[in-house]
Please model this.
Amino acid sequence: MSADDIIDLYERHAGAYDRDRARTLQERRWLDEFLRLAPPGGTILDLGCGMGEPMARYVLEQGLPLCGVDSSPTLIGMCRARFPGSEWLVGDMRTLELGRRFAGVLAWDSFFHLTMDHQRGMFRRFADHAQPGAPLLFTTGPREGEAMGSYCGEALYHASLEPSEYQGLLTAHGFRVRAHVADDPDCGGHTVWLATFDGGTAGRSEAHGAGGRFTTT
Model:
């Protein structure tokens, strides 16, 4: 199985994913910091939004407009039915060209399904869709490598670069790292990156974390 098969897997099992996805929002601490950093009055871009729960729902409940993008037409259909006042698009983040900039960009538990090369290419797309000051929040693996999980009895592809490469890619594309925690024990073991876009000026890393430390600037 490769990253290209992920689109079909989530489409085939959209109903099961909707049933199985936890709604407890263990990600709230990260989302709150992400939203705190977002410039006021703008729209949040959610890449790999799934069926819009719980992440997009939480953003909308805070009163922020949101544009959700997912490769699964069925999952996007669920979003449109549940949140009809928001913008939901069927699309592949790897080829994203919306021609707009957003007040924040989310790629939670979606970015890490891409191959290493596709992940490298995403940082230009992140920058192309972020307005100055916009936060970027995404999850990766803790170290370089490929891994196969499983869902509904099928292989589920994941990949990650080395943390130092992510840091270099963020800096090269005008992002400044605000916080990074590997295997965050307070967030289900997720490895999380939070950065802000400095409008095209290369930034420098401000904060790092491991073992549950969470520091922002």
Summary: The helical segments are 5-12, 14-20, 28-37, 55-61, 73-82, 116-128, 163-172. The chain is about 30% helix and 25% strand. The domain at 5-210 is CATH 3.40.50.150 (Rossmann fold).
